[in-house]
């Protein structure tokens, strides 16, 4: 049975690498994939991994009907044995519905990859729809780690090195603290306390506050 599978995790846990591996394994056996992406850090029409691999992809714009795109492609003699959709958190809810229709009406497997929640720990609309519709949700096995060593489950955004909890939901960026807007993966405890690696380092270096003595 064809499936809609949502591979989800934090930033930097290997989602795009897995997407590229799935693409490699299938294409090396003669299968042909349709690869969708949106706002990859490497630029328009690219699916890239931090391990350095990159492949061409169809950039999904606002309002593009992914089901209609596939039907048009097939009716013009194109092939699509499977579909990969990276950065799926950026897709609109309707586009996830269209991917589900690709599975059900065209009988094609769809593998979607994305982060579930944003920097405020709120679901992206595309990810929410994937959780609602997917046949399976797979959490990636390679754990990204918080600075404390616990499994990272949340994505923090930093602006000028300081963790923020307000701002636009979508700001393309990387887990790079030197950029003006950066991201850092944290465990829930440290996300709730807004404690990034830099904050924790600063706290460790500051002298202990002396207990106040009663007069
Ligand atoms: N220099 C490196 N050596 C080994 N593995 C690396 C290196 N840099 C990144 N990685 C791996 O790549 C992962 C990020 O892969 P990527 O597919 O770009 O993540 P995602 O798409 O989930 O954001 C990291 O979690 C790490 O496992
Ligand atoms: C948390 C969060 C992330 N983003 C952006 C930052 C990156 O461009 C992508 C995630 O890519 P990755 O391959 O999973 O690292 O999403 C965002 O726009 N808003 C957020 O809240």
Automatic annotation (TrEMBL):
Question: Which sites bind ATP?
Answer: 9-16, 86-89
Q: Where in the cell is it found?
A: Cytoplasm
Question: What are the entry keywords?
Answer: ATP-binding, Cytoplasm, DNA synthesis, Kinase, Nucleotide-binding, Transferase
So where's the catalytic machinery, residue-wise? 87 (proton acceptor)
**May I have one GO cellular component term?**
cytosol
Binding of substrate occurs at 170-173, 183
Q: A Gene Ontology molecular-function term?
A: thymidine kinase activity
Q: Which Gene3D superfamilies match?
A: 3.30.60.20, P-loop containing nucleotide triphosphate hydrolases
Q: What EC number(s) does the entry state? A: 2.7.1.21
Task: State the top-level EC class.
Answer: transferase
Pfam annotation, one family: TK
Which reaction(s) does its UniProt entry say it catalyses? thymidine + ATP = dTMP + ADP + H(+)
Q: Kindly indicate where the leader peptide sits in this chain.
A: none
Indicate where this protein is primarily found. cytoplasm
User: In its UniProt record, which GO terms are filed under biological process?
Assistant: DNA biosynthetic process; thymidine metabolic process
**Highest taxon, organism lineage:** Bacteria
Quaternary structure and partners? Homotetramer.
What family is this protein classified in? Answer: Belongs to the thymidine kinase family.
Identification of the protein by name: Thymidine kinase
């Amino acid at each position: 049975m064809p499936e809609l599978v949502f591979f989800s995790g934090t930033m930097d846990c290997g989602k795009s690498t897995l997407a590229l591996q799935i693409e490699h394994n299938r294409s090396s056996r003669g299968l042909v994939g349709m690869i969708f992406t949106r706002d990859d850090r490497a630029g328009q029409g690219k699916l890239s991994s931090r391990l350095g691999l990159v492949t061409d992809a169809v950039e999904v714009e606002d309002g593009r009907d992914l089901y209609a795109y596939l039907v048009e492609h097939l009716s013009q003699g194109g092939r699509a044995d499977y579909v990969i959709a990276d950065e799926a958190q950026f897709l609109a809810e309707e586009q996830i519905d269209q991917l589900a229709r690709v599975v059900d009406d065209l009988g094609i497997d769809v593998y979607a990859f994305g982060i579930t929640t944003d920097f405020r720990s709120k679901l992206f609309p595309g990810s929410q729809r994937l959780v609602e519709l997917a046949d399976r949700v797979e959490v990636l096995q390679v754990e990204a780690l918080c600075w404390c060593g616990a499994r990272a489950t949340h994505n923090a955004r930093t602006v000028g090195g300081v963790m923020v909890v307000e701002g636009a939901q979508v700001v393309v960026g990387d887990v790079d603290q030197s950029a003006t807007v950066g991201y850092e993966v944290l465990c829930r405890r440290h996300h709730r306390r807004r404690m990034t690696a830099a904050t924790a380092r600063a706290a460790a270096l500051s002298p202990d506050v002396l207990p106040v003595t009663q007069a």
